């Protein structure tokens, strides 16, 4: 059994999508980020960085894993699914996973902060992050012009990117400007496992803390 510590954010949902796709049984612990449950000592013992997601593998001596990309690799290696064993194919998946972890995630996260939460309106800063996101979306769109999925076959790299692309409109990006990415998005969006993973954790917060963004709900 896997314990999943998560919240209603893209980084959390990468992991619930992967757990659903891999058919692994898991228990969800939804953390209230606004109440700083992720900074509690009990959670810091699992993730010293004090952020979601994190997992504890109860079948592996209560082994804790933090950082969503590391969690996806751990789960893929545990199950032998969605990460090829062959060195070059595996490298391709990890390259695109790192592209998401170091690019799409941080840049789109900052775009959201400066567009929606930061007290001052700083147009040049907003443009900086939104434009960098558009550039990264263009890179994905180019890759998907010649590939069905981001790294060849469907993999943990796709699972890592999807919950961020779901939020494109909220981040000031028009998905229709990236037709190959939109085609890929529609394929993933139709998968029942992805749909189930995107619903984790169930909403447990007052509605005024939540912004409706198309099919996904994100924290304000
Ligand atoms: N690189 C980390 C980022 C994790 C992260 O930023 N988590 C956010 C939610 S998506 C969080 O826990 N924010 C609350 C906080 O920083 O206290 C990962 O991919 O796991």
Describe the structure.
- The protein has 220 residues and is an alpha+beta fold.
- The chain has two domains: 2-81 and 193-218, Glutaredoxin (3-Layer(aba) Sandwich), CATH 3.40.30; 87-189, Glutathione S-transferase Yfyf (Class Pi), Chain A, domain 2.
- The chain has helices spanning 10-22, 41-44, 68-79, 87-117, 123-144, 156-166, 179-189, 192-198, and strands at residues 2-6, 26-30, 54-57, 63-66, 210-213, 216-219.
- A four-stranded mixed sheet has the order 2-1-3-4, covered by helices on one side. Strands 5-6 form a two-stranded antiparallel ribbon.
- Helix 4 runs parallel beside helix 6 (156-166).
- Bound molecules: glutathione (GSH).
Name of the CATH superfamily of the largest domain = Glutaredoxin
* Series of secondary-structure elements, N-terminal to C-terminal: EHEHEEHHHHHHEE
- The CATH topology of the largest domain corresponds to Glutaredoxin
Number of helices: 8
Structural class: alpha+beta
Strand content: 5-15%
Biggest β-sheet: strands ordered side by side in the sheet: 2-1-3-4
- Tell me about the biggest sheet? 4 strands, mixed
The CATH architecture of the largest domain is 3-Layer(aba) Sandwich
Q: Over the alpha carbons, how many angstroms does the gyration radius reach?
A: 17 Å
């Amino acid at each position: 059994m896997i314990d999943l510590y998560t919240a209603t954010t893209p980084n959390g949902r990468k992991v619930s999508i992967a757990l659903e796709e891999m058919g692994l049984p898991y228990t969800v612990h939804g953390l209230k980020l606004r109440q700083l449950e992720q900074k509690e000592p009990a959670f810091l013992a699992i993730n010293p960085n004090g952020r979601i997601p994190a997992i504890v593998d109860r079948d592996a001596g209560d082994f804790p894993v933090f950082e969503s990309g590391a969690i996806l690799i751990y789960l893929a290696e545990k199950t032998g699914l969605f990460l090829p064993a062959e060195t070059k194919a595996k490298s391709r998946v990890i390259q695109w996973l790192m592209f998401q972890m170091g690019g799409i995630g941080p840049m789109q996260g900052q775009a959201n902060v400066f567009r929606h939460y930061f007290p001052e309106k700083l147009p040049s800063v907003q443009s900086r992050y939104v434009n960098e996101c558009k550039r990264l979306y263009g890179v994905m769109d180019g890759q998907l012009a010649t590939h069905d999925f981001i790294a060849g076959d469907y993999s943990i790299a796709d699972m890592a990117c999807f919950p961020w692309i779901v939020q494109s409109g909220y981040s000031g990006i028009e998905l229709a400007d990236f037709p190959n990415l939109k085609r890929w998005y529609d394929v993933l969006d139709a998968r029942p496992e992805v749909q189930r993973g995107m619903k984790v954790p169930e909403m447990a917060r007052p509605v005024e803390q939540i912004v409706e963004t198309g099919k996904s709900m994100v924290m304000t």
